[in-house]
Amino acid sequence: MSKINDFEHKMGAHCETGTLTSLFNYAGLEITEPMIFGIANGIFFGYLETDTFPFPTFIVRSRPGQIRKNITKRLGIKLFEQKYKSVEKGEAALDELINKNIPTAAQVDFFYMDYMPEWQRVHINVHFIIIAGEKDDKYIVSDSYYPRIAELSRESMRKARWAGGHMPPKGFLFYPVNVPQKIDLKKPIIKGIKTACRNMIGLPVPFIGVKGIYKFADKVKEWPKIARDTEHLSHEIMKINILLEDQGTGGAGFRFMYASFLQQASEILSNSDLADMSKRMMKNGDEWRNISYFAAKIGKNRDLGTDKLEELSDLIRKRGDEEKAFFTELKKIIK
Amino acid sequence: MKEKDLYVDFSPQQMIYYVEKDDSSYGPIISGSQLSHDYLDDFYYKKRNLEKSLRDQIAKNEISPVYYYMILQELGMGDLASRVGVGKRKLKRHFKPSCFNNLRLKMIKKYAEIFNVPLSSMFQVVIVKDDDRKNIDIQKMRTNNDSFELLKICAVDKMEDKKS
Predict the structure, then answer these.
(1) Does one domain contain both B27 and B53?
(2) pTM, rounded to two decimals
(3) How far apart are CA A14 and CA A250, in angstroms?
(4) pLDDT at B127
(5) Nearest chain A Cα distance for residue B154, angstroms
(6) Does A133 contact B at CB distance below 8 Å?
(7) Which of A56, A121, A162, A244 could form a disulfide with A253 if both were Cys (CB 3.0 to 4.6 A apart)?
(8) Which residues of B touch A231 (CB under 8 A)?
(9) What DSSP line would sit under A58-81, residue for residue?
(10) Furthest CA-CA distance within chain A
(11) Are B31 and A251 in contact, with CB atoms under 8 Å apart?
């Protein structure tokens, strides 16, 4: 067995949307990654302080797996989805799918994707890849984060598919079994935007949506108290850049990709207001990216005094102000 | 952000970013990571310092290798406890050398599996002087015996001789 002949590897900004885009395109549906992200209301913000993570952190997208659930429901796509408690059964199921020439997505712990640069590999149980064949007892992998088709040993794949911990993969596999070839995207777009507005400004949770951005702005000033030392603080501050730019967001914490979605949505809905909102979101993304640059700079220079963290906090707070106004406006437009 | 303002030439870490193209449309480009391009040296500098500091703490009998790898691999305590299948209180006890030294081999193997290190790395850290890093290749090789590993040390030029 070797690579599934006609499967084409494509990079994606994000693993979940990238994987879905590749699978849907392979199944004959022409749809872009930003469109999947937007329809599935992937845009989000949450500030998290739990012992699941070694340090307070934030998320800029909806809960992993939610994009898959939303997009399939809203576009009427049917997926085969299965978790496997038994390693033997889970491996046999994957081998059978490869033999049937079916590119199949798997949930894995990113840490074991040993084709990725070492500095990128962290334990994240909600990474998604496509297994596109098998060669010399290694899996052929299409990973949205990797420029080329990659290979992964059976041992690494086993560890990655059955890693325990927070949101464990449990051998989860999925692939589309029924994909409509022509879909009217108008209603799903509206639904996706409405839900995104609700998530960002309408949920009564103090660490979610715009409230989460404000919480982040407040809490980042307290990080020196919980960091082990200056170098640890520098690392965590510089990770703001990673979380916004380099952890599969398409840049600026998914804000650039959401701007792209709104631009495409404005054309489909013939709505010029959405085109304006798209430009506004792109500018908002630029400011998020400035936060990334600023965090990297002060982290590298160990310039982490109260004044700099106040400055960082202000920059984040301003994003909260802008996104509050933005999603309030967007909600009115899409009504 | 405009394509020309975002693009970074850095082949070791390439990703998709969404940008404003010349024709004002928004779409994907492949670019290197700005952070890794500019600051990867600093990342490794801090990591080496952290490794040394934790290693010293193990040597002073202050922490166990479980704590060492948990911090180095940036695992949350709750996450690690769940991966190992123990409660957080029990995990905290495993941070203490006195408790770690009495752990069953099966449990230590489980930790090694999760940290993705050979079993022997739960008991020792191999240090190579900075100057010698380029000249020496060290590989820990697993065998069919779960409790027995081979440590292969090769001078790099010798390895190249073998290849040729």
Answers:
(1) no
(2) 0.94
(3) 7
(4) 87
(5) 22
(6) no
(7) A244
(8) 46, 49-50
(9) EEEEPPTTHHHHHHHHHHT-EEEE
(10) 60
(11) no
Q: For residue B80, what are its two tokens?
A: 């690690």
A45 in any annotated domain: no
B40 touches chain A (CB under 8 A): yes
Which pair of tokens denotes residue A230?
Answer: 């200056």
Range of the domain at B101: 34-125
Residues A208 and A171 in one domain: no
Whether residues B86 and B102 share a domain: the answer is yes
What are the per-10-residue average pLDDT scores of chain A (335 residues)?
76 98 96 98 97 95 97 98 98 95 96 94 95 93 96 96 94 97 95 98 97 98 97 98 96 98 98 98 98 98 98 98 98 93
For B67-79, the pLDDT digits (tens) are 999 999 999 999 9
Contact A128, A19 (CB under 8 A): yes
| Non-local CB neighbours of A97 within 8 Å, separated by 6+ positions | A104, A131, A173, A175
What span, in angstroms and rounded, lies between the C-alpha atoms of A113 and A119?
12
How many separate domains does chain A show?
A: 2
For residue B160, the model assigns a pLDDT of 54
> B33 vs chain A: nearest CA distance in angstroms?
7
Residues in chain A: 335
Residue A48 lies in a domain: no
